[in-house]
Each structure stands twice: as structure tokens, then as C-alpha cells.
Amino acid sequence: ERLRKLQSLALGExxxxxxxxxxxxxxxxxxxxxGCALRGNVFRFYKRAAGDWAAEKVxxxxxxxxxxxxxxxxxxLITDILISLDDRFLYFSNWLHGDIRQYDxxxxxxxxLVGQVFLGGSIIRDGPVKVLEDPENQEQPPPCFxxxxxxxxxxxxxxxxxxxxxxxxxxxLFSGWDRQFYPEMIREGSVMMQIDVDSVNGGLSLNQxxxxxxxxxxxxxxxxxxxxxxxxxxxxxxxL
Length: 240
Description:
240 residues; mainly beta; five-stranded antiparallel β-sheet; four-stranded antiparallel β-sheet; 2 helices; 36% strand; globular; nucleus
């Protein structure tokens, strides 16, 4: 059957730059989430009883007032989101702020933050940027080191194991943006890291024994992006 557009959803300014969209894995579910990069928001979209579709904002990561950066306010820049195979947890990366967040989405309309880990980013405490005002009142994080290497850039593409216990992340978004926001990553290459996930109570912790350094490729530093598990992962599998 020929595909045809049935409806468009206008998310407004809060929905600017919707980069990644994820449906729940349950084939009978008629809802999902979309990460909107520029304003740091996640919208839930769902099918209504009347048969049409609607959307509502369910997560918002506020921008931080800063100095020493190119703009007076720094958005989190949500660049990737994914959902665990059991449809219990939603994860996303804030490429500029430098953290990955884990939300319990058992209550689909009211996600609850249950895990967070910082992996570099643009507000590290020994960098040129000073946070003047943060609605979340979080301290500027320290730089991220793994096996003696300082991680350049911020967390970007995500991939989660089918059992929901191992979350992998790379740091390159798009070479033009990498060059603008994280020039050191162009020189050093990107990395891949592993996050250990508490899939029972929620919680994220960096695995200090795992690092893939793409700066050591035979032909020079590389910018790794997409991740896939050979046996299946949480962005390519559904329930059967």
C-alpha cells in the first residue's frame, strides 16, 4: 500500500530541532517520545481515542546562564534518546551540558529522573565556561578521565543492550558541529564509553575499565557515531 501522510504535529518553539523519535517497543502501543534538541525538551506523542495524534511536553532540561561561551545561555542540546526493551526507562544525552539521564517512564505522562552521569561536555569546571545561573542548581562537573585519557566532547549517540544493563555512548555528533563546539575532538578523535545501568531501581555509573579511543585509528583520528549490537539492541528490536 502506498504511504501517505495522515497528520502533522506542530510542537512550536519548545519542539525545535526534533532529532530522534522512539516508539515504545510493545507493538500494540500507540505512543512514543521525541527529543527536541534546541530547547532541551522531550515530547510524548500518542494516539487519541478519536484516532488522531497529539503531543505533550513531558521533560524539560533548562538552559544555563553562562559566561565564556558563544551565547549567554547554553542549551543542554538533547541529541539522542532511546527506550529500554521493557519500555520502563528512557535515556537521553545532553551533548553540550555533558550528561546522560535515565528516566522511569512507567507513568508515561510523568517521567521520573532516576539516573544521571556526566561524561565531559562544555561546562566542566576547569574549562573556559562559567555557569552563572542554573535552575537545577547542579555543580559544574569535573572533566571525565578513563584509563588516564581525558574524554573530549560530550555524550552523543546511545545504544542499550537487550537486557538493559549496558549503555554505550559515543561523542561525535556531526563533524561541522564537532569542529565548532569541541575542536579538540577533531584533533584527538572521538571515544566510545560504557555506562553500567541499574535496571531495577535506576542509576547510572561510568565503567572505568572500558574505553575505545578512535584517536588511535591507523589512518588517524576518527569521529565514531552510530552504535549497533550484532545480536540486537534497543533501537532495532521490538517485542515478538
